Amino acid sequence: MTTILVTGATGTLGRLVTERLRDGGHEVRALSRHAPQYAVDLIRGGSGLDAAVSGVDTIVHCATTPRGGDEKAAANLIAAARRAGVGHLIYISIVGVDRVPLGYYRTKLAVERLTEESGLGWTVLRATQFHDLPVQLFGALSKLPVMLLPAGVADQPVEVAEVADRLAELAQGAPAGRVADMGGPEVRTFASLARAYLKATGRRRSVVSVPLPGKTYRAFRAGGHLAPERAVGKETFEDHLAQRFESQERG
């Protein structure tokens, strides 16, 4: 039986990865700042992190925050993993971190490099954005009578549960380096996704696309965050919306 540590284990992705690995019969340590047993702040590190990593075979690093600190957290985790003799470090990244000059993407790319240069056996999986992100974005934008969207930008959202399945599969295998990207089943314009969201939530809003300035917008417009050749996801945005909002209505 393999002992696996999942960081960010109380988050949307980490929780699902933890569940799948436990269902597979592995001993799984769930680490996050709010986890009941391994309550560790990766940015601070310390003896709690060493205790969490001790005796672990594989680490699935899901912990992340757009508020900053991911590089420091990864460096602390890698140092603890080296001391403990961990054999395999898996990192979940984002498609386009090397093509889109967004600050958060640059940080994810820096953590990829730390992983690759860690001296540990490593695997990096890049996925497109989860369905949750456009849902949250449209929820905020639909508070106004008109939804203003970036013109010419598409997205390829993927279901988080499918990414969790892939990470659990990778955690049960040998280090594989940079594996093939994982994208959602469809590349869709922001406007079409927004209209699907409005239909699912029963809201009536005008959708207006506007051009934006800057290198980041141009990179998104060029599709730097997309992986159309790796459209391996199964659940569409409409599937996600139906499940999400029908369950809310039943609740």
Automatic annotation (TrEMBL):
It comes from the Bacteria. Transmembrane segments: none annotated. Pfam families: NAD_binding_10 (PF13460). InterPro entries: Ergot_Alk_Oxidoreductase (IPR051604), NAD(P)-bd_dom (IPR016040), NAD(P)-bd_dom_sf (IPR036291). Signal peptide: none annotated. Residues 8-139 form the NAD(P)-binding domain. PANTHER family: PRESTALK A DIFFERENTIATION PROTEIN A (PTHR43162:SF1), PTHR43162. This is NAD(P)H-binding protein.
